[in-house]
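Assemble and predict.
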Amino acid sequence: AAGVIQSPRHLIKEKRETATLKCYPIPRHDTVYWYQQGPGQDPQFLISFYEKMQSDKGSIPDRFSAQQFSDYHSELNMSSLELGDSALYFCASSFSGQGFREQFFGPGTRLTVL
Amino acid sequence: ELKVEQNPLFLSMQEGKNYTIYCNYSTTSDRLYWYRQDPGKSLESLFVLLSNGAVKQEGRLMASLDTKARLSTLHITAAVHDLSATYFCAVDYPLTSGSRLTFGEGTQLTVNP
């Protein structure tokens, strides 16, 4: 079965640079979620989108922005990168139909800021 | 604000032994996930519990949910080394436009021969 695809899988950036992470949800899924997991930490919710509109916002820094496109893929844009942004970034997707909207996670993008 | 607490945070056990990981949460929810994560890897879904009294088992792992007590447990039976990993519970906090998961701190399990 198709899964959530994230690219790139690994990314190395310098401080103050920008980065763009991409997420391709499972076919037919219309909701995308972004989570950040720092070293030794639990994943923290950043932001979610439903039908190309932001649906919920968590602890996402102002330096970050995200959007969902017409094909439902999503991009997380990160600017003025800081050392503390080094983390695993997970994308998850779900289908908004009736009943429980189970989230399915992608493999993650490991961002290292030097 | 929803809080999710796991205990213990670190668990070292011998092969063949049994143990239970606890997950307490602060707000009413009847949707809870258990995940396994190996170092540097993604989150592997183990169980999704959707109602009070739900119990699910897969191999040496069994999970249960008590929504009235706001408590979920992950029971490990006759542990083997391959179970060494970090285990997270996550509570699904539903919103009108979707939901967000709030994770516990994780339990780092080490199974020693």
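Chain B has no helices and eleven strands.
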